[in-house]
Write a structure and sequence with these properties.
The protein is α/β, with parallel strands linked by helices. The chain has 9 helices and 8 strands. The protein has a 5-stranded parallel beta sheet with strand order 2-6-1-7-8. Strands 3-4-5 form a 3-stranded antiparallel beta sheet, with helices on one face. A hairpin with a 2-residue loop joins β3 and β4. It is globular and about 50 Å long. The mean pLDDT is about 95. The structure holds 2'-deoxycytidine-5'-monophosphate (DC). The site of 2'-deoxycytidine-5'-monophosphate has 14 residues, from α2, α4 and α8.
Length: about 220
């Protein structure tokens, strides 16, 4: 049976770690839709596109290919998995993901990717907009403090020296922007199962999702 699993939630909730685990457990493909928005942001940033100019954005998008290849994010054939994770691209992605042509292009691509095989996608609007008809929807979240702490630990582990208040401020701003944009804002679908992960690790969350999927 082909299945589409939608995992939505705010940044730092651990969605991608969980989605990767579920994909491995069920033997299905993982689609990181945030990476796709980040790749578009990187492209527009590099091209110096004026993002208030709809024509310019459309032109910049027309010659753009994005592929997810075994965990790597490819932009016009270039592996951009590293560059799309910088704070600059992260902040810009929040802005460019609010643009209609960007969302139209990526939503169409995501629907094609999930049309013929079983997939798990994580993002902000998968259950509400990309695959509203799928029966497997999860909204994974955690308190802002816990999410900031996780992001802080992740950055420290990677050798950075982050400032906690700054990390928390950036997360709060992104939450606000993602929830208040006009197009497909971050929202829990009415029929999505809510999983609050403050007291859970990624394995436990993945186990909960696998159990719910297998039960149906
Ligand atoms: O999940 P992430 O942090 O990698 O996402 C990067 C940005 O892309 C984030 O600001 C929200 C946006 N995004 C979106 O608008 N819709 C999605 N389905 C996934 C991400």
């Amino acid at each position: 049976m082909r299945m589409v699993i939608a995992v939505d939630g705010p940044s730092g909730a651990g969605k991608s770690t969980v989605a990767k685990l579920v994909a491995a457990k069920l033997g299905i493909e993982y689609i990181d839709t945030g990476a796709m928005y980040r790749a578009v942001a990187l492209h527009l940033l590099r091209a110096g596109t004026d993002i208030t100019d709809a024509e310019a954005v459309l032109a910049a998008l027309s010659a753009l290919t994005i592929d997810l290849d075994g965990g790597r994010t490819m932009l016009n054939g270039e592996d951009v998995s590293g560059p799309i994770r910088t704070p600059e691209v992260t902040a810009f992605a929040s802005k460019t993901s609010a643009l209609a042509p960007v969302r139209e292009k990526l939503v169409a691509l995501q629907r094609r990717m999930g049309a013929e095989k079983s997939v798990i996608l994580d993002g902000r609007d998968i259950g509400t907009n990309v695959f509203p008809d799928t029966e497997f929807k999860f909204f994974v979240t955690a308190s802002p403090e816990v999410r900031a702490k996780r992001r802080f630990d992740e950055m420290t582990e990677k050798g950075g020296a982050p400032d906690f208040a700054e990390v928390q401020g950036a997360i709060n701003k992104r939450d606000y922007d993602d929830m208040h944009r006009a197009l497909n804002p971050l929202r829990q679908a009415d029929d999505a199962a809510l999983i609050v992960t403050d007291e859970m690790d990624a394995e436990q969350v993945a186990g909960r999702i696998v159990e719910a999927v297998v039960r149906k």
